[in-house]
Amino acid sequence: MMTDTSDEVLIDAAGQRHFPCDGPARIVSLVPSLTELVCDLGLAPQLVGRTGFCIHPRPVLQAVTKVGGTKDVNLARLRALAPTHIIVNVDENRRDCVEEIAGFVPNVIVTHPCAPEDNLPVYRLLGAIFHRRAESERLAVALEAALAEARAVGAALPREKVLYLIWREPWMTVAQGTYIAATLAAVGWDTCPVLSEPRYPAFEWDAPWLPEVQRVLLSSEPYRFREQHVDEVGRLSGLPPSLIDGEMASWYGSRAIEGLRHLAALRRRLAAE
Predict the structure, then answer these.
(1) Stated pTM of the model
(2) What is the rounded radius of gyration, in angstroms, for the C-alpha atoms of the chain?
(3) Are 231 and 223 in contact (CB under 8 A)?
(4) Which has the closest alpha carbon to 180: 248, 84, 112, 241?
(5) 3-class DSSP state for residue 33?
(6) Closest by CA position to 245, among listed 224, 228, 229
(7) What is the pLDDT of residues 17-76, one digit of tens each?
(8) Are 31 and 87 in contact (CB under 8 A)?
(9) Residue 142: inside a domain, yes or no?
(10) pLDDT in tens, 123-181
């Protein structure tokens, strides 16, 4: 049951209105980074379901029921948990699956952060719905500080055009309209190629835009690039590649705070080499 206890209008990324919950919630998160946010808001006792890709914070989540993956949700298992709220994401969850879930879960909270600063309204939306306003504001203050630090680094150093690799066979990177690209841009790294679609383009090493690239970053996810790939990519690109923790660039929610700080430090370190 939901009760409107204030004049504040709480709207999610799908334009759906929400209200502060009345009593304890039964939350299922189908978004790994937002599962972590739920826990950081102090809501772990109300988290009854998650995906198999929800891995942080590991000790807390071991006791939380898995309901499948982000794309292949076990609807029977989800229904059995009787959730009052489910958290989904435009990019990570299939629309047809979310629409089916909406038929038996009273409150579907849709998120769609496209840049690091978009985490601020996500913090505040969840904080308001689940009565964790103080916790959400603490995260907001920390994120704003991390954003300021990242942007200061980006302003202090010359901007660089980077190739951010996310897959091998085929080789794939990220377009500029992605959350990853926006996060990298905060520290002065502009992703190549300069396009918005497709969001995760495949490419060949003779692509005409490759000579513009000044730095190559090998992400740890979704493909797990390791040290053995550094020499291979170095030969193909003609540049010395650097390994990067993919969670720091691609996870939103509360991990975006650590991510921005990590990227700012990495940008400074690589610039000094």
Answers:
(1) 0.94
(2) 20
(3) no
(4) 248
(5) helix
(6) 224
(7) 999 999 889 999 999 999 999 999 999 999 999 999 999 999 999 999 999 999 999 999
(8) yes
(9) no
(10) 999 999 999 999 999 999 999 999 999 999 999 999 999 999 999 999 999 999 999 99
Q: Are 41 and 135 in contact (CB under 8 A)?
A: yes
- In 3D space, the residue among 252, 270, 272, 248 whose CA is nearest the CA of residue 260 turns out to be 248
3-state secondary structure 157-168: CCCEEEEEECEC
Q: Please tell me the total count of domains within the chain.
A: 2
How is residue 84 written in tokens? 């009052």
First vs last Cα of the chain: how many Å apart?
A: 57
Cα-to-chain-centroid distance, residue 96: 21
Strands (E), 96-141: 107-111
Residue range of the domain that includes 101? 10-112
Whether residues 100 and 200 share a domain: the answer is no
Question: Does the pLDDT value for residue 231 go beyond 70?
Answer: yes
| Six-digit token string for 195 | 């396009």
Task: Check which CATH number belongs to the domain holding 66 and give it.
Answer: 3.40.50.1980
